[in-house]
Specification:
Elements lengths: L1 H17 L9 H11 L3 H12 L6 H17 L3 H21 L4 H13 L10 H14 L7 H12 L6 H9 L3
Helix pairs in contact: 1-7, 2-3, 2-4, 3-4, 4-5, 4-6, 5-6, 6-7
Length: 178
């Protein structure tokens, strides 16, 4: 019953966020693409962060992408003070996004990607297991999760890389028809 509730909430949440474009012109599908590009180069990260910095509205998924833009800036920063500044801002924004929509698997995925790569000694990875469960449950619910097949494949491939999942979780994820 609890799983059905989570799936239902995910579907509603994703249905709203997938088509969301607010008055400021922040379209979720475009933000996904910008986020993936931002992780690959410091120039793309800077452009993404500059674009997201201007966002001042309250859509929780877009707010999570703003947080992700801060996290990508931390990845590319060489100065330890700047890295921490970006990580702290990302954590603050992720907390706000999750507070506004705690059942959204896309928000959970974005936070998971940041927390997974933050060194554990910084004690900023408290939500890894919780977020991973949301991600895997959403992949299991696909296509009812609201993710496009393309985005579900990106999530699946990410979760199968390195140490993002346990071997048992990877086996489950590989068995999913996406």
């Amino acid at each position: 019953m609890k799983t059905l509730l989570i799936i239902f909430l995910c579907v509603i949440s994703m249905a709203q966020s997938v088509t969301a474009t607010n008055a400021s012109g922040y379209k979720i599908t475009d933000l996904r693409e910008h986020y993936l590009m931002a992780s690959k180069s410091s120039e793309n990260a800077r452009r993404f962060n500059d674009h997201m910095y201007k966002y001042k509205e309250s859509n929780p998924v877009i707010l999570a992408y703003r947080a992700a833009s801060e996290a990508t800036m931390a990845k590319h920063a060489w100065n330890p003070y700047q890295k921490m500044k970006h990580i702290n801002k990302a954590a603050e924004l992720f907390d706000e996004a999750v507070k506004r929509d705690s059942h959204n698997p896309e928000i959970r995925f974005l936070r998971f990607t940041m927390e997974h790569y933050v060194p554990r000694y910084l004690n900023m990875s408290a939500h890894l297991e919780e977020d991973k469960k949301y991600i895997i449950d959403s992949l299991r619910a696909h296509p009812r999760s609201g993710f496009s097949t393309e985005w579900a494949r990106i999530l699946r491939d990410f979760m199968l890389q390195k140490d993002h999942s346990t071997e048992a979780e990877k086996k489950l994820i590989r068995s999913l028809k996406i």
